[in-house]
C-alpha cells in the first residue's frame, strides 16, 4: 500500500533538494573563472593513507573541522549524514550503542551477542556495545564504512565499521580549553594538552571532558501505594559523563613510532525511563484506576532505581616500524574492561510488575600484527589477529506478587538469569591490490577466522520477600538482593562451560575491480562476504528448548556492489553513487513467546531468517562559490525477510526487517567567510530526513517510529585570525519534533524512548 502522506513529504524534500541543486548549478557556472575547489579528504579505510575518491569502498569521512562545524557531539549523530545507517543509544540506556548499516546490526546488547557493526578506536576493536556511544572530542577523523569488513581488519564485521581516530600529537607544547553551556542546564568542560619531553622524540598528552545536562523530562518517584500519589521526581534523559585519555608517543628515529594510550569513561547518568506509547492494563492498588500516560513523552513513572553506572577503560600499545621504503610492520596490543549497572522498568509504572535490575561485566585482550607492502603496481596488507574475552552478566525479572498479594508488599516472583561467555578468536587476513593497467586495479582479499566459545547459562525461579521500588537491593542475590530473602522454586536452565562449547571456522573472500576512466572519475565493482559469529542464548530456557546448549550458528552476508566516484567541474563537485545487493542468510533471530505462569515468557535465538537487501546511496558535495558549499546524502533500501522458519513453517509474511528505513537523507548548506583580521566565520544548516522503521521483526508496536520525519539543525562557528579563539552556537531539532528511537512491547504494556527535543549549545574555546 502506498503511504500518500509519507510520499508527499518525500516528494517535497526531493523537490527542495532538486531546486537547491539547480541553484548551485547556475551559481557554479557564474563562478567559472575563479579558483574554487574542494579540499582533499584522506582516509585509511584500506590501512594506508589514500584520497577518499581513490578508495573503491562505500565510506563517509568526517574531519575534526567538519565535526566541529556541524556541532556533532556523539557518534549517534552521524546517522543524519551517512546514508542507510541508524546509530542509536539502546533503549533504556544512555551509552550502549545499537548500530545498523544497510539493515545489518544487532538489536540486543545482552552479553554474548556479537555486534553487527564494528567500532574501532585507533585500530582497537570494541567487542561490546556498552560505552560505545562515544562523545566526540580530541578527534582527528571519523570514518564510517558500509558493507562487510574483514580482509583488512582485525575483527570480521558483517554490516560495516565505525572508525574513530584520535588526534595525534603535533610535537609542540600546546593546550586547549573548551567550555559549553546550553539548554537543560548543559555544562561541558573539555581540557586537552600535550608537551614534548624530548624534542622531536618523546611527547606526552592528555585530554579530559566532563559533560553534564539536566533531563529532558522528569520521572515521578516516591509512590504511595495507599493514595496513588508521588512525593518526588528524578531527571529523565539527563547526562553525567566523565571521559579521560592519556597518551605517550615516542619516535626515536624516522622509521619507528610507538604509542602507549589509555582511556576511561564513567557514565553516571540516570537510567532512562520509557513513557507509555499505549495504555497499560496495570492499575493503582489504591483506587483501581489505570496508570495514565503523561502528555510529555520525556516524562515517566518507573518504579526501578534510576541510579545507573557504566564504566569502561583500557590501554593500548601501537608500534610501527618502516623496514624499507616499501615495507612497514605494525603491531597493536589492547586490553579493555567494562562494568555496567542498570535497572530497566518494562511496565513503566511504580509497580513491581516487570522490573529488571541487571549487571554486566566484560574484558578483552587483543593482538594484531600487520604487514604493509607497497611497490610499483602492487599494494599488500596482511595480518594476524588474536582476541580473547569474557562477557558476563546477571539480571532479575521481578514479576507480579504471588497468590494475589499486592504488587508492593515486598514479595514477588523472581526469574533470575545469568552466566558468561568465553571467546577465543584467531584469524589471518590477506589483501592485495594490483594495477593491471595504469587505470585498472584488481583487489582481492581472503580472511580465515576461527572462533571458539564456551558458556555457562543459568535460569532460576525464586520467590523473593524483599523487593521494593526505587531500591538498589531490588531482586535476588543474583544481582543486588540478599540471598537469604529468596526461596528457590525451580531451575529451568543450568548449563556448564563444558556442555555449551562450540567452535566455528569461516573463510571470507572479497574482490574489487576499479577503473579510473579519467583523472576525475572512477568506476568500481566489488563482492565481499562477512559473517557474525555464532553463540549461545543467555536467556535460553532448557525446560522449553532442550537444545540451548547447542547454541546458534554464524550468520552471513554476501554483498555485491557497484559504484562511481567522481570529482567534476574543476574539483568543485564531488559526486559518489553506489548500488548494492545483499544476501543475508542464517540470520540470528530472537523469538520470544508468552508462556503460562510462572514461566511467563521464553526466548530462543535461532538461525531462522533469510533476507534480501537492495539499495542505493548518493553522496554529493558542491563548492558553489569560494564561500558557499552544499552537501547531499541520500540512502534507499528495500530490505525484505524472504524466509523465517518458526515451528516448522515459513512465517515471513508477518515479519519485517527492523531498523531499516526505506529512505534516509540530508541536505546541508554551508557558508564560510574569511573576515581578514576579524577571523573566519562558518555557518551551516541541514535538513535530515528519515523514513518510518520497526523496532521488532515480528511485532507491530506503538513504540515504532511509524511516520517519516525531518529534523532541522543550524550552527555557527567563529575562529579568530590568530587561531586561538573559537566561539560556537548550535541549535538542533529546531522545530522540536517528537520522534521515537526505540521501545518495548511486552505483556505489561508498550513503552517508547524518544530522541532529543530542541536544544541549543553555546561554546567558547581557547587554544594556546
UniProtKB/TrEMBL annotation:
This protein's membrane topology, according to the annotation, is:
Multi-pass membrane protein
Leader sequence range is 1-30
Q: Where is the TonB-dependent receptor plug domain?
A: 52-161
Statement: the UniProt record of this protein carries the keyword Signal:
yes
- Keywords carried by this UniProt record: Cell outer membrane, Ion transport, Iron, Iron transport, Membrane, Receptor, Signal, TonB box, Transmembrane, Transmembrane beta strand, Transport
The TonB-dependent receptor-like beta-barrel domain covers 285-734
Which is an annotated Pfam family here? Plug
Enumerate the residue ranges of region (Disordered): 263-288
The identity of this protein, by name, is TonB-dependent receptor
Q: Which organism is it from?
A: Zhongshania borealis
Q: Give me the stretches of Polar residues compositional bias.
A: 268-288
What is the protein's major site of localization?
A: membrane
Which family is it part of?
Belongs to the TonB-dependent receptor family.
* Localization per Swiss-Prot or TrEMBL: Cell outer membrane
UniProt superkingdom? Bacteria
- Place the motif TonB C-terminal box on the sequence: 751-768
Amino acid at each position: 500500500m502506498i503511504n500518500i502522506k509519507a510520499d508527499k513529504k518525500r516528494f517535497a524534500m526531493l523537490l527542495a533538494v532538486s531546486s537547491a541543486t539547480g541553484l548551485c548549478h547556475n551559481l557554479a557556472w557564474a563562478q567559472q573563472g575563479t579558483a574554487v575547489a574542494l579540499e582533499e579528504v584522506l582516509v585509511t579505510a584500506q590501512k594506508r593513507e589514500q584520497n577518499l575518491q581513490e578508495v573503491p569502498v562505500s565510506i563517509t569521512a568526517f574531519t575534526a573541522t567538519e565535526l566541529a562545524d556541524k556541532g556533532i557531539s556523539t557518534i549517534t549523530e552521524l546517522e543524519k549524514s551517512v546514508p542507510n545507517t541508524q546509530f542509536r543509544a539502546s533503549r533504556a540506556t544512555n551509552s550502549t550503542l545499537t548500530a545498523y548499516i544497510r539493515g545489518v546490526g544487532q538489536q540486543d546488547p545482552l552479553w554474548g551477542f556479537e555486534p553487527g557493526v564494528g567500532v574501532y578506536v585507533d585500530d582497537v576493536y570494541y567487542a561490546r556495545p556498552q560505552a560505545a556511544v562515544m562523545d566526540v572530542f580530541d578527534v582527528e577523523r571519523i570514518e564510517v564504512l558500509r558493507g562487510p569488513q574483514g580482509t583488512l581488519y582485525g575483527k570480521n564485521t558483517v554490516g560495516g565499521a565505525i572508525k574513530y581516530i584520535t588526534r595525534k600529537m603535533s610535537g609542540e607544547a600546546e593546550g586547549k580549553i573548551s567550555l559549553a553551556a546550553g539548554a537543560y542546564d548543559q555544562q561541558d568542560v573539555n581540557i586537552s594538552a600535550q608537551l614534548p619531553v624530548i624534542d622531536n622524540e618523546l611527547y606526552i598528552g592528555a585530554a579530559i571532558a566532563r559533560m553534564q545536562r539536566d533531563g529532558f523530562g522528569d520521572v515521578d518517584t516516591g509512590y504511595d501505594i495507599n493514595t496513588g500519589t508521588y512525593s518526588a521526581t528524578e531527571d529523565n534523559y539527563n547526562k553525567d559523563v566523565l571521559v579521560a585519555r592519556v597518551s605517550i608517543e615516542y619516535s626515536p628515529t624516522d622509521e619507528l613510532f610507538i604509542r602507549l594510550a589509555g582511556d576511561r569513561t564513567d557514565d553516571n547518568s540516570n537510567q532512562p525511563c520509557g513513557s507509555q506509547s499505549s495504555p497499560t492494563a496495570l492499575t493503582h492498588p489504591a483506587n483501581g484506576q489505570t496508570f495514565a500516560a503523561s502528555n510529555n513523552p520525556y516524562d515517566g513513572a518507573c518504579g526501578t532505581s534510576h541510579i545507573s553506572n557504566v564504566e569502561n577503560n583500557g590501554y593500548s600499545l601501537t608500534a610501527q616500524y618502516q623496514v624499507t621504503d616499501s615495507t612497514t610492520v605494525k603491531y597493536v596490543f589492547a586490553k579493555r574492561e567494562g562494568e555496567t549497572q542498570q535497572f530497566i522498568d518494562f511496565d513503566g509504572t511504580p509497580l513491581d510488575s516487570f522490573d529488571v535490575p541487571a549487571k554486566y561485566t566484560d574484558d578483552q585482550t587483543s593482538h594484531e600484527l600487520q604487514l604493509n607492502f607497497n611497490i610499483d603496481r602492487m599494494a599488500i596488507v596482511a595480518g594476524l589477529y588474536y582476541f580473547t574475552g569474557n562477557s558476563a552478566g546477571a539480571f532479575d525479572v521481578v514479576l507480579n506478587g504471588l497468590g494475589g498479594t499486592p504488587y508492593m508488599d515486598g514479595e514477588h516472583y523472581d526469574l533470575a538469569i545469568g552466566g558468561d561467555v568465553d571467546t577465543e578468536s584467531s584469524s589471518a587476513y590477506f589483501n592485495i591490490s594490483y594495477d593491471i593497467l595504469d587505470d585498472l586495479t584488481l583487489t582481492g582479499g581472503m580472511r580465515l577466522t576461527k572462533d571458539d566459545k564456551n558458556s555457562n547459562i543459568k535460569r532460576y525461579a525464586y520467590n523473593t520477600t524483599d523487593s521494593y521500588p526505587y531500591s538498589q537491593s531490588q531482586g535476588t542475590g543474583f544481582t543486588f538482593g540478599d540471598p537469604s530473602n529468596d526461596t528457590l522454586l525451580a531451575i529451568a536452565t543450568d548449563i556448564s562451560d563444558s556442555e555449551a562449547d562450540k567452535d566455528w571456522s569461516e573463510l571470507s573472500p572479497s574482490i574489487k575491480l576499479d577503473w579510473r576512466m579519467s583523472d576525475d572519475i572512477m568506476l568500481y565493482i566489488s563482492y565481499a562476504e562477512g559473517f557474525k559469529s555464532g553463540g549461545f542464548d543467555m536467556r535460553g530456557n532448557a525446560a522449553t528448548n532442550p537444545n540451548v546448549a547447542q547454541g546458534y550458528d554464524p550468520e552471513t552476508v554476501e554483498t555485491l556492489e557497484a559504484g562511481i566516484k567522481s570529482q567534476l567541474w574543476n574539483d568543485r563537485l564531488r559526486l559518489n553513487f553506489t548500488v548494492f545487493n545483499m544476501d543475508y542468510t542464517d540470520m540470528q533471530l530472537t523469538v520470544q513467546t508468552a508462556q503460562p505462569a510462572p514461566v511467563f515468557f521464553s526466548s530462543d535465538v535461532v538461525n531462522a531468517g533469510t533476507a534480501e537487501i537492495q539499495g542505493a546511496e548518493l553522496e554529493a558535495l558542491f563548492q558553489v562559490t569560494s564561500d558557499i558549499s552544499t552537501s547531499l546524502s541520500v540512502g534507499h533500501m528495500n530490505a525484505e525477510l524472504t524466509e523465517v522458519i518458526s515451528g516448522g513453517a515459513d512465517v515471513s509474511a508477518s515479519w519485517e526487517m527492523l531498523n531499516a528505513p526505506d529512505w534516509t537523507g540530508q541536505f546541508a548548506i554551508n557558508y564560510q567567510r574569511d573576515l581578514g583580521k576579524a577571523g573566519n566565520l562558518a555557518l551551516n544548516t541541514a535538513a535530515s530526513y528519515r523514513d518510518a522503521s520497526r523496532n521488532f521483526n515480528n511485532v507491530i508496536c506503538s513504540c515504532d517510529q511509524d511516520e517519516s520525519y525531518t529534523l532541522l539543525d543550524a550552527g555557527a562557528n567563529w575562529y579568530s585570525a590568530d587561531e586561538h579563539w573559537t566561539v560556537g552556537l548550535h541549535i538542533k531539532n529546531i522545530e522540536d519534533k517528537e520522534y521515537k528511537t526505540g521501545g518495548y512491547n511486552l505483556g505489561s504494556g508498550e513503552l517508547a524512548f524518544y530522541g532529543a527535543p530542541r536544544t541549543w549549545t553555546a561554546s567558547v574555546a581557547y587554544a594556546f
